[in-house]
Specification:
Layout: H1 30-33, E1 44-46, E2 72-78, E3 107-109, E4 116-119, E5 122-127, E6 133-138, H2 152-165, H3 167-172, E7 176-183, E8 186-191, H4 199-204, H5 211-214, E9 240-246, E10 250-255, E11 275-281, H6 284-292, E12 298-300, H7 304-309, H8 314-317, E13 321-327, E14 331-339, H9 349-357, H10 361-367, E15 374-375, H11 393-399, H12 409-412, H13 423-439, E16 442-445, E17 448-451, E18 459-464, H14 470-482, E19 486-491, H15 494-502, E20 508-516, H16 522-527, H17 546-556, H18 561-577, E21 581-583, E22 585-586, E23 589-595, E24 598-599, E25 617-618
Parallel strand pairs: 2-11, 18-19, 18-20
Antiparallel strand pairs: 1-4, 3-4, 5-6, 6-8, 7-8, 9-10, 10-11, 12-23, 13-23, 14-20, 14-21, 15-22, 16-17, 24-25
Helix pairs in contact: 9-13, 11-18, 17-18
Length: about 625
């Protein structure tokens, strides 16, 4: 998709770290925390079905266990950063890219299964048969970079820190009541009710923080505060650590040669480079020119114009730069113009639908996207979870009790975006847009669209963090102005943009929400009523809809794959027919270019796209490492 994947949902990366809150606030007795005796310990967990890899497996099938170690990779990041503290990611500051490389989690996901994870810090896991609690047994060999063991206290401290200081993740873990030590090396989590099939896997994503480090003092003698941003490189337990940085501009990670997990089957063949450097750019055009000049090694291309016309420079012609697409099989996407419906002017869905009729995707696709894109028509675009036709079977059963809470079109009309293949269709769409605006209480006076009650003209501001996005919005602007709508396009820097998002100080933004193949608790953060007023949540739109909340519950508590798919399709329909967004476009592949310095396994993981640089390695024994000015020796 176009450039926007980097933007709003950079916040979503923090959803891979964990926190939780209780819905009831009532602590269960200790006996309720302990798994039933007949619940076996497992080396991994799967949401539905059996694990692909058996106990004692040697390595994941998609890695090269003998991959060359060493060398360096130079990558680019967009924007800036001023924070190394994962705990407050999405709420305070701008988190540095790839900070998760410094930490380990309880479990680690497999990239060739839909929803499975295997033991990392936790050597084994188990849960009660009714999914009312889960327990993890920690490896005694797991260590922090300072040599201290990773303990149950660290796990509990991490859970409590995320729960207390990250509202977005508090929503994500709202059904987790408590974490307690239940054995010498065991930690148990209790849920507020049975049936939470996804929570054992979600808790496996918990990023573990070092309690002793966060409760200590920094080099200046000041106490550290897990609730605040920091540019002190953190103590970690993962395969890399920060060795140098220039705040907001560059960052270098060094592979930890004594990393405790080097020989684990889930780490074999991964993290092969000795050093990873990230340079930050605030202009995507400048970033691309830097790549062409050899300033960094790998470029993810999100511009269809560049993809069609920008790769004819000599290094490509001479095969020194390799241009390649990788299929995206591991996620769906909704990318859109998103309304802030907290503002009264966007409260009527008919007005929001009129904005869709005013958007001529076909012309934008033809004129500036080289016909490369397909229009998005689902919040789960590109997956089996996307709705189509009319609801039937299990999906209809879920929707029937909500009939009086959802738009009637959910049952009567398959969702389609307006189409303008020719001038006649385009004029018809504009007429429909005007009819909808009139039904929503607006009329044209003196060439301006005004509220018939207040007499106030309708004006909207598109808030952007990147000049590149203006290309297609400047097509949209005159179409809206033909309807009498006043339009302002405002571009601000990344810091101001994130601040305004958190404060909900915007009319319309370009937003995207990635969807995994097994959606769950993150849907509460995307669309749930509780998240609407929480700073840092990804409910940017401000949705408070009981039918949406009910269908999210059906997804979270689905007992099998068929029920999950049906609930997702039902939710998709309700979101679509409320016209919370004007859907944009998508592309089925990851478009990449790289300098020819790297090798990869012959078969990449099914759900890992390119998986660069995680399972790649250097072609030559190039041990030269990257120099960078800065501070930050851990």
């Amino acid at each position: 998709m176009e450039t926007t994947r980097r933007m709003v949902l950079s916040l979503a990366a923090s959803a891979s770290v964990a926190a939780g809150v209780a819905r009831s606030g009532v602590c269960a007795p200790l006996s309720a925390l302990l798994p039933a005796q007949d619940d076996p310990w497992k080396h991994g967990l799967s949401l539905f079905g059996e694990l692909k890899y058996p106990p004692g497996f040697k390595a994941f099938g998609y890695v090269n266990a003998n991959a060359r170690k060493g060398g360096a990779v130079r990558q680019a990041a967009f924007g800036t950063y001023d924070n190394f503290n994962l705990t407050v990611a999405g709420l305070k500051g701008q988190l540095a890219v790839a900070i998760d490389l410094t930490y380990d989690t309880l479990l680690i996901a497999s990239m060739d299964e839909v929803s499975s994870a295997y033991g990392l810090i936790a050597e084994a896991a188990r849960h009660t048969a009714d999914f009312s609690s889960a327990t993890y047994r920690l490896r005694q060999s797991a260590k922090w970079h300072d040599g201290a063991p990773i303990t149950v206290d660290d796990v509990i401290f991490s859970f409590d820190a995320f729960k207390a200081h990250n509202p977005q993740l508090a929503i994500y873990y709202r059904h987790v009541v408590e974490a307690r030590q239940s054995g010498d090396h065991e930690v148990s989590f209790t849920f507020d009710s049975p049936g939470h099939r996804e929570l054992p896997l979600i808790l496996g994503q918990l990023t573990i923080l070092p309690k002793h480090w966060w409760q200590g003092r920094n080099a200046a003698g000041q106490r550290r505060d897990v609730a605040q941003t920091t540019l002190e490189p953190p103590l970690g337990s993962g395969p890399y650590r920060i060795t140098a940085f220039e705040a907001g501009r560059s960052l270098v990670y060094q592979r930890v040669e004594s990393y405790w997990g080097n020989d684990l089957n889930v780490r074999i063949g991964r993290d092969n480079f000795a050093q990873l450097r990230f340079d930050y750019y605030r202009d995507l055009g400048v970033m691309f020119e830097a790549f062409k000049a050899g300033q960094f090694d790998w470029h993810d291309e999100n511009s269809s114009k560049n993809w069609a016309t920008g790769y004819d420079f000599p290094a490509v012609q001479e095969k020194r730069v390799i241009v390649e697409e990788f299929p995206i099989r591991n996620l769906g996407i909704m990318q859109a113009f998103a309304f802030n419906i907290r503002r009264a002017k966007f409260s009527d869905p008919r007005l929001r639908r009129a904005f869709n009729y005013a958007f001529n995707f076909e012309e934008v696709n033809r004129e500036i996207f080289y016909g490369a894109y397909h229009r998005i028509a689902s919040y789960f675009q590109g997956t089996e979870l996307a709705s189509s036709g009319l609801p039937e079977g299990k999906e209809l059963e879920l929707l029937e009790p909500l009939r009086d809470k959802v738009p009637p079109e959910v049952f009567a009309t398959p969702y389609h975006n307006p189409v303008a293949r020719d001038a006649a269709q385009w004029r018809s769409n504009l007429r429909k847009a005007m009819q909808l605006l009139e039904l929503a209480g607006f009329t044209v006076r003196d060439m301006q669209l005004v509220d018939v009650v207040t007499g106030q003209p309708l004006s909207v501001e598109f808030l952007l963090a990147d000049q590149v996005l203006k290309r297609f919005i400047m097509f949209y602007k005159p179409w809206l102005e033909r309807l009498g709508i006043q339009v302002v396009v405002r571009v601000v820097d990344a810091v101001q943009y994130q601040t305004r998002l958190r404060q909900r100080d915007f009319d319309i933004v370009v937003a995207s929400w990635p969807q995994t193949l097994s959606p769950g608790n993150e849907q509460r953060d995307f669309w749930g009523s509780r998240a609407a007023d929480m700073p840092g949540s990804l409910n940017l739109i401000g949705i408070k809809n009981q039918a949406v909340d009910d269908l999210i519950d059906k997804i979270v508590l689905a007992s099998d794959r068929a029920s999950l798919v049906a609930a997702a399709k039902a939710l998709d329909r309700v979101l679509l027919w409320n016209h919370y967004v004007v859907p944009q476009w998508t592309y089925p592949n990851e478009r990449t270019a790289r300098w020819d310095r790297f090798d990869r396994p012959p078969v990449l993981p099914t759900y890992g796209q390119s998986a660069f640089p995680t399972i790649w390695w250097g072609k030559r024994d190039d041990e030269g490492l990257i120099a960078v000015q800065g501070t930050g020796q851990p």
